[in-house]
């Protein structure tokens, strides 16, 4: 099968198109013929080696964390899926590889594709929707009438998180460029702040939770918009010792993460704010819940561009440019 892979970590080198064997199907796996794959900044960060300490992959590596397609084979223990099912998934770490024609995925990480979405729309959903779910439902435990600040509202995570937070009954503030204001208000954002010309920490106060997806400077500013007892949840780092413990990281990684996160953890503690780092996990069960919201029209995908499979490197460059509004997808079939 055809696949785009990396042979070494590099920021500049493009993905390599190669012919590789179709994956073997384990007893608990489904083999999916990929119709569309979503791209994420996580793919770029893995490609550059940014996550090699906490995700030590063997190279060569096929990238890709989002998939929509059709089941073509099932393992002997699979009970929830059959050949011909239309599915979508975010495969678990160390089993990624959606930039290819086929992928084998543990059935626990797979869900039936929402009936009201195209393959391209479905491929845009898993990673960002699971991230939003795990931040807002699991960690922040958002309740009605709470105030939630979601950074970078026009990004892949932001567009879904705004919709989910509004469904949970929260008041939502976000940041974006002015050309995205109308779109984000249509998605449910109550307050949209022009990140180029305004300081959000001067406009917002007494918030219950922040979803941080930006740099260290923005992370520290976010501490100032939270009320005492609020939660600052970052998906862009720095990772914490607790995360290292949960990930069973080597001892030296635990020490490194403790050091790089010590500053923000200290400041958060002084303000009585709970700081945590989230590296989202695959979950077919949570995807099923998200599917229900999608089919009810509560969450809608936001797809910026769809590229052909042969345009994978162009698509990756577009994601890395930061210009994408919503998700970028490649189409295989």
Automatic annotation (TrEMBL):
InterPro entries: ADH-like_N, ER, GroES-like_sf, NAD(P)-bd_dom_sf, YIM1/Zinc_Alcohol_DH_Fams. Residues 10-330 form the Enoyl reductase (ER) domain. One of its GO terms (molecular function) is oxidoreductase activity. Signal peptide: none annotated. It holds the Pfam family ADH_N. Gene3D superfamilies: Medium-chain alcohol dehydrogenases, catalytic domain, NAD(P)-binding Rossmann-like Domain. It comes from the Bacteria. This is NADPH:quinone oxidoreductase. The lineage of its organism: Bacteria, Pseudomonadati, Bacteroidota, Flavobacteriia, Flavobacteriales.
